[in-house]
Design a protein that fits this description.
CATH architecture of the largest domain: 3-Layer(aba) Sandwich
CATH class of the largest domain: Alpha Beta
Oligomer: single chain
Largest sheet: 6 strands, mixed
Helix content: 40-55%
CATH superfamily of the largest domain: Glycogen Phosphorylase B
CATH topology of the largest domain: Rossmann fold
Number of strands: 14
Shape: elongated
Strand content: 5-15%
Low-confidence stretches: 1-20
Mean pLDDT: 88
Length: 603
């Protein structure tokens, strides 16, 4: 099996590789016996799991690696982390079903959440699975809560979701927990007033009614329904229901006076907002406000409870408005398949109902503020960091096996590879990565740039891969000079970044550019598009940043760095210094501190 390159020297000693069923059972037992504070990370689309090839599988790239590394970083600080990912369909290798939990370490597990059928679903189409997934995830967490003897919202100190589809699940969990709390408060206030069967029905229907979204209204509505038929005038029903509630409370020693006057005052304040005839909805709101005013203990319990049960933090990684802008010049057919309108609508709802955000780039932070109105003090800047133990300059003896792998794959000798100039790119096989442009740009320089070689990694062998293969075959000048590597075995990926003389990215739809930052850490020169946030923010003067989609610019940049090794080396050294600010441990500590200041009770 492939061994995942666990990301981060500071937690590397605790990592245990998933192997046999016995290993899995042992890790499950160790995880269950752990006592650290629990954290949930949700990354819902693609093939997120313990074993994913570097370079990605469909819809499985940098954000998936980000989540894994964050999980291990949290585990290194004593947390127990559950990563929830979509399951119920075959793994990317097609050999096993994504159903049983996988363990990234003794403190980090993947839990696969079924829903949406038994086949892979593109991230753009993931909405079809979310209702079923939310039901399953809700039931799973309730079972965990029962085992721990706590409320569902107390199982995890933090629920951090990644990308919009995961955020819909996180938001849905919070809404269901709000429904639970609202029911408990309403049932206490109406105990002895409403029939027990009515309260039982309310519990059963609490999610359908969205009880936690407007608990005051539902409190008043139910109390109003306790007295009189809908045909009875609303004012009469209000007075009768208040009298009933006050009588029950007085008998229990909980009310000292009739609250009719308080209700009358509430009705007067809002009567003018509606038609002259009092509307039942207005009466229900007024009645609920009055009852809570007369029940300060329950009112405070509801207020503080709704505040503290919201443990959800959203990390978008990208926003529909930004990706839409980056694709504005693409054909309508391509834009149609990306479903930007649907995505923007989901993201608006998430921003309206979420209180804390982690932005992986300045563009995402600005988009949250400018397009969705998120307050600045609710946004924490948490860019993808780099594992300096994996992505670094490698010694000659450490790269030997990787050179031999490249040699066997390409037909070039190890000596040719070591003496030549290697241009390298790896990412998932997606048209927005513009690997085709890199091949065309390279083809235009091969005649006057001898001894340079292009290696493009990533998979799967989909239509994009087939088109690239055809592109190479149609150009004889690229024979023996440009290669598609497919998935690169994990043990070679770190050395590959170091062996390359130039790392390339022509991506036109990039959340951050983790491959580019990893190349910087490996002390490798970089040529990339101006749509790669890492390069623009951290290394605009050291990477060669060119206009996205500009073939001549990319070819010129390649020619320049291939022919000038001193410039290459100087840029690579400066890049390695710039990337040192991206440290996982320091950023994770700062992230948790931000959430504590926001009011979350995180150990």
């Amino acid at each position: 099996m492939m061994i995942h390159p666990f990301l981060g020297a500071f937690f590397r000693p605790e990592v245990v590789i998933l192997g046999s069923n016995r290993d899995s059972r042992r890790l499950a037992r160790i995880f269950q016996e752990g006592s650290g504070p629990d954290v949930a990370l949700i990354t819902n689309h693609g093939y997120a799991g313990a074993e994913v090839p570097v370079g990605g599988a469909p819809d499985t790239g940098g954000p998936s690696m980000y989540v894994k590394t964050l999980a291990l970083s949290l585990a290194g600080m004593g947390h127990r982390v559950s990563i929830f990912a979509r399951g119920g369909f075959p793994h990317f290798d097609g050999q096993r079903l994504r159903d049983e939990p996988e363990y990234l370490s003794e403190s980090v597990r993947f839990v696969f959440v079924p829903g949406g059928g038994d086949a892979f679903i593109r991230k753009e189409d993931m909405a079809v699975a979310l209702d079923e997934q939310l039901d399953w995830l809700d039931a799973f967490i309730r079972a965990e809560a029962e085992a721990k003897g706590c409320k569902p919202w107390e199982v995890f100190q933090l629920v951090n979701t990644h990308y919009w589809d995961a955020a819909v699940l996180g938001m849905g969990l919070v809404e269901r927990w709000r429904n639970d709390l609202a029911w408990h408060v309403i049932s206490r206030l109406l105990e002895g007033v409403a029939l027990s069967e009515t309260l039982a029905d309310l519990w059963r229907d609490r999610h359908r009614l969205a009880l936690g979204q407007a608990p005051v209204f539902h409190l008043g509505r139910l109390l109003l329904d306790c007295e009189g038929s809908p045909a009875t005038p609303v004012e009469q029903r209000v007075r009768a229901s208040v009298a009933r509630w006050a009588a029950v409370r007085k008998m229990g020693g909980q009310a000292s006076s009739m609250p009719v006057e308080a209700v009358e005052d509430a009705l007067k304040k809002i009567r003018n907002r509606m038609a002259p005839a009092l509307h039942p909805m207005v009466a229900a709101d007024a009645l609920g406000v009055a009852i809570l005013t007369l029940s300060p203990g329950q009112a405070e319990h509801l207020r503080t409870g709704l505040e503290h049960l919201d443990r959800h933090v959203w990390t978008p990684h990208s926003l529909g408005v930004l990706d839409d802008e980056g694709q504005r010049n693409q054909p309508a057919e391509l834009r149609r398949n990306l479903k930007f309108c649907d995505r923007r609508d989901h993201e608006r709802a998430i921003c309206d109902r979420t209180n804390a955000f982690a932005a992986t780039s300045p563009a995402v932070a600005e988009g949250l503020r400018s397009h969705h109105g998120v307050p600045v003090d609710q946004i924490f800047y948490f860019p993808p960091c780099v594992d300096g133990a994996l992505f670094r300059p490698y010694l000659e003896e450490e790269t030997q096996a990787s050179y031999e792998f490249l040699s066997a794959m390409s037909g070039l000798s190890v000596e040719q590879l070591q003496e030549g100039v290697i241009l390298f790119e790896t990412s998932r096989m997606d048209r927005t990565k513009r690997k085709d442009l890199l091949i065309d740009a390279f083809a235009s320089i091969v005649e006057d740039c001898s001894d340079c070689y292009l290696f493009i990694g990533g998979g799967p062998a989909n239509e994009v891969y087939k088109d690239l293969r055809h592109q190479l075959e149609q150009n004889p000048a690229l024979a023996g000079r440009a290669f598609l590597t497919g998935y690169i075995p994990d043990e070679y990926i770190g050395p590959f970044f170091s062996m390359a003389d130039i790392y390339l990215s022509a991506s036109e739809l990039e959340d951050f550019g983790m491959g580019v930052s990893q190349a910087a850490a490996a002390e490798t020169a970089i040529i990339c598009s101006d749509l790669v946030p890492f390069a623009v923010q951290y290394a605009a003067g050291d990477a060669l940043v060119v206009h996205a989609g500009d073939l001549e610019d990319f070819a010129g940049a390649m020619r320049r760095l291939v022919k000038d090794p001193s410039d290459r080396q100087a840029r690579a050294q400066r890049l390695a210094k710039k990337v040192k600010v991206l440290d996982w441990r320091a950023q994770t500590h700062a992230f948790l501190d931000f959430l504590r200041r926001s009011g979350m009770a995180i150990e």
